[in-house]
Amino acid sequence: AQRTLVLVKPDGVGRGLTGEVLRRIEAKGYRLVALDMREATTELLEQHYAEHLGKPFYGPLVEFMMSGPVVALVVEGHEVIAGFRSLAGTTDPTSAAPGTIRGDLGRAWGTAVVQNLVHGSDSPESAAREIGLWFPAL
Ligand code: ATP
């Protein structure tokens, strides 16, 4: 089955929403393959967000991701990459649909960084790359 990398970002962990995110993933029938709470390093985040290097939100994004612990997950299931992004909702919680993690639980921006609770890989290539970065032993 397909695998994806999911992160509960520092806002999600800080607001006590880790369990709620896990609940939605498991309720959908996906399987947790790996789970680890950790403080992300600059080096890891620079690699994770390499595609955003040079964008105006890059610096604030990396800083935000280091503002507290994150919970990293590898999740497995049929078409889980698209499926988790559908559970998460669109990037901006302001407009994310009700029923999604960001739509139900995400706060509207109002800040320079999008604090949108979760990350999910966006393609099979990204998933393989990101799982290798966060869980090199897998
Ligand atoms: P993710 O990759 O985290 O699942 P995404 O694919 O919806 O989210 P990307 O476009 O890959 O979003 O951007 C990565 C992250 O950078 C976003 O989740 C958000 O936290 C932040 N971000 C994206 N666009 C902006 C923006 N215009 N202003 C501020 N922050 C942004």
Tell me what the structure shows.
The protein has 138 residues and is of the alpha+beta class. The protein has one domain (2-134): Nucleoside diphosphate kinase-like domain (Alpha-Beta Plaits, 2-Layer Sandwich), CATH 3.30.70.141. 40% of the residues lie in helices and 19% in strands. The protein has helices at residues 10-14, 18-27, 42-48, 58-65, 80-88, 101-105, 124-134; strands spanning 2-8, 31-38, 70-77, 118-120. It has a four-stranded antiparallel sheet with strand order 2-3-1-4. The protein is globular, with a radius of gyration of 14 Å. Adenosine-5'-triphosphate binds at residues 57, 61, 91, 113-114, 116, 119-120, 122. Its main location: cytoplasm. It catalyses: a ribonucleoside 5'-diphosphate + ATP = a ribonucleoside 5'-triphosphate + ADP; a 2'-deoxyribonucleoside 5'-diphosphate + ATP = a 2'-deoxyribonucleoside 5'-triphosphate + ADP. This is Nucleoside diphosphate kinase.
List keywords for this structure.
NDK-like_dom_sf, binds adenosine-5'-triphosphate, 4-stranded antiparallel beta sheet, 40% helix, ATP binding, 138 residues, 19% strand, metal ion binding, Alpha-Beta Plaits, Nucleoside diphosphate kinase, alpha+beta
